Amino acid sequence: MSELRKDPIVDRWVIIATERGKRPMDYKEIIEEKKTQACPLCEGNEKQTPPEIIAYREPGTAKDTPGWWVRIVPNKFPALKIEGELFQRQHGIYHSMNGIGAHEVIVESTSHVSGMDAQTEKQVEEVVWAWRDRSLDLRKDARLKYIQIFKNTGSAAGASLEHTHSQLIATPIVPVDVRMEIEGMKEYADRHGSCVICDMVMQEIDERVRIVVESEHFLVINPFASRFPFETWIIPKKHQHDFGQINEEQVRDLASVLKSVFGKMTIMIKNMPYNMVLHTSPVNLQEERHYHWHLEIMPRLTLIAGFELASGYYINPTPPEMASQALREIQEIYPLQERIMTGVSTYV
Asked: Can you give the pLDDT at residue 343?
């Protein structure tokens, strides 16, 4: 029988539709049509992007030339721009403000590969440092209140470029989903005297039915009220409200975990499209120390249709317990080191 499950953080219900259940092996390989045009993110094509903001590069190499291993540039078609003054307008019941913010692209590798599974752990570590460094730098602008880091992979997830990259959009307001989490975590803390995600971590470690990977600093789970098949959360075991506080040991560990998780997903379903989002506490506002930052990976294997749009509830045909068991059983077989470095993956 199908089951309604409530998210323990926000007031949202999910239908785990076992009656129409899809087992992990029921999902087919996703066919991605390879693009033939020159890639603007590849090394040697630096002039095809806006001038770089910052890059991790070899000493002595010039800006906007080869020699980098991670490169951050403004988005060519930005949703928000850093230039200008922030002002708000009120017209009757309508409220607006000008589009102040930042929109950046983090080019994660010189190699033309689609995901983190095809990179070395060291390279993924450098990407995590880039996320942290940009978060710390942008929060110096007092106009910005939230820094959203996200990654789209596959055309079904909204990616227009194959080359592995993530993005950052900094906004002058806190997104509604994050506000809901902040309120939910604060309400739980007031009621129980503890952090809901810390309690979630303890229960998942005790029950061990939805764990995908466990490392020294992180727990990876398919959450109890998963909205999507194979929805996966990466959670710091120790309470930490601000991703910008991540330390060197955590960065190394997170890089290993990200590579492992994406390796498992790629083996499970070739070319799996997904969105990854980092949820962290706001900046330049009162500290939300009860918040617990985490990464959410949402594979795009099902369609969001009328019921979801009308109700805000989701229908998930694959129970998270089944998804986590399938992912746990996958042993990642990584390519030889030199193949990874040249961008050749055995998964492709």
From this structure: 35
